[in-house]
Amino acid sequence: MHPAPSLIFFSTLSGLGLGLLAFLGLGLAPTEGLTGLIFFALAFALTGAGLLSSTLHLGHPERALKAFTQWRTSWLSREAWVAVAALAVMGLYALLAMPGLRLAPLGWLGAVLCLGTVGSTAMIYAQLKTVPRWHQPTTPLLFLGYAITAGALLSGRVSWTVVLLIVMAALQMLAWRRGDAALAKSGTTIGTATGLGGRGRVRLFEPPHTGGNYLTREMVFRVGRKHRVTLRTLVLVLAFALPALLLLLPFSHWLAAVAVISHVVGMLAQRWLFFAEAEHVVGLYYGQSAA
Amino acid sequence: MTALPETTERKLGLVIDLDTCVGCHACVTACKGWNTQNYGAPLGDDDAYGAAPSGAFLNRIHSFEVQPDEGAAQTVHFPKSCLHCDDAPCVTVCPTGASYKRVEDGIVLVNETDCIGCGLCAWACPYGAREMDPIEGVMKKCTLCVDRIYNEALPEEDRVPACVRTCPAGARHFGDLADPDSDVSQLVAARGGMDLMPEQETKPVNKYLTPRPRDEIDVLAPFLERVDEGPKGFLGWLDRALERL
């Protein structure tokens, strides 16, 4: 799939912001006074920037409000509702909590809605049977795990963060492993796509057009094998190993800041790979093969 | 409304005969032409007269080669457009309700004034049947020429999709696949019509007819007298002279 920058920034930034908001809601990060204001401002800014970025890939952003209508069937519509509810509840919670009136149940509700938003985003991808790499239970687990880890990291829960980083590194490797085998395991091949598989080996003889088209640009994107290994290593080092090491050193704000930056850069690389590695079955009609 | 209807009264669709299709792309051109001038926004093109033209098409012809374990490979021309699936995944993912499946005839359509151009429906379709219009920013797809098939201003023989009307080989058939007595249903029954990617569980309405086995070379061919006995005259002398060298 085409790694659109708007979608990469959306899912990374909103994941960071919503993770931090969930921790603020649960009272696991400082919510009072000036410190509270800084934390809330950071969390809302990240979430807001992410959500705005998501509208950049729309053909008609001025009609975005219509996306609230189909929550019965569409995860994208559900995401819109849960995101607005999360921002509204957490906004009210923040306004009350900063002067010192922290309503715990309101915060819990907000935290659930924040993680619900991340989960809905993940389900937009995980529901797609057409992209076997995404159509896995690891997809929502990864999105939620990254958000919770970001929340722990940004709210300064050092020991939680280290444990979460280790767990997430393992989960990420499992997701890659399962993902690499997913297309072959899905049973969809050029043989079933053309219905000609029973007659022999099928290969693309001529594409429909000499140039590319919307489908090839949007869905038939492949990362070179070499870059895949390099980028995955980069994700493991930047998102997990380096932040964990820095946090295990005697605590300083500078080291923590470097850990945050490293984790975010690693997350951006992970999201780029999430899209770029994903094989859409329509690629089979364009001569793309499994693995 | 993006909830799919439980059942549709009719299932209008296409039956495409891979045995007959000659890969001329006439249906592609007819489709592009009709859908640029009629229902909805014109089918847009980017850089149409420039160095890298690219545009939205609702029907594209791929050509595949099938190599059996034994014998000669076969080229199969493969037209592909929306299959108007009963369980259309493109419809349920739509956040705005722009995508819908009609109860009366099962046609899957996009209401272009509601489409926000998010592209999720194109991701959900395994067949690549939906393409974003590069000019309008809305999703385009086969309408089964909904503006032809019910159009009483047209002569009766023209009330079929443009691709079917234009096919010079008669490889495309249009009709109601819910009616077991319709021509298309009988054709599907007689020829063993198949679904594309049945494992994706989209229950496509359109069916494909597989190519028949090609004529085999006569088993007696090796024993027949050879027609060509080698070059004669000057060329024959040259051939023999060169062989001796």
Automatic annotation (TrEMBL), chain A:
GO molecular function, one term: dimethyl sulfoxide reductase activity
GO BP annotations listed: anaerobic electron transport chain
Residue ranges crossing the lipid bilayer per the database entry: 7-28, 34-59, 80-100, 106-126, 229-248
Coiled coil: none
Keyword match Zinc: no
Keywords on record: Membrane, Transmembrane, Transmembrane helix
Record bears the keyword Transmembrane helix: yes
Signal peptide: none
InterPro entries (UniProt xref): DmsC
GO cellular component, one term: plasma membrane
Official protein name in the record: DMSO reductase anchor subunit
From TrEMBL, chain B:
Coiled-coil regions listed: none
Highest taxon of source: Bacteria
Keyword Metal-binding: yes
GO MF annotation list: 4 iron, 4 sulfur cluster binding; metal ion binding
UniProt domain 4Fe-4S ferredoxin-type: residue ranges: 12-42, 73-105, 106-135
Keywords: 4Fe-4S, Iron, Iron-sulfur, Metal-binding
UniProt signal peptide: none
InterPro entries per record: 4Fe4S_Fe-S-bd, 4Fe4S_Fe_S_CS, ET_IronSulfur_Cluster-Binding
PROSITE patterns, A to Z: 4FE4S_FER_1, 4FE4S_FER_2
Protein's name according to its UniProt entry: Fe-S-cluster-containing dehydrogenase component
Taxonomic lineage from the root: Bacteria, Pseudomonadati, Pseudomonadota, Alphaproteobacteria, Rhodobacterales
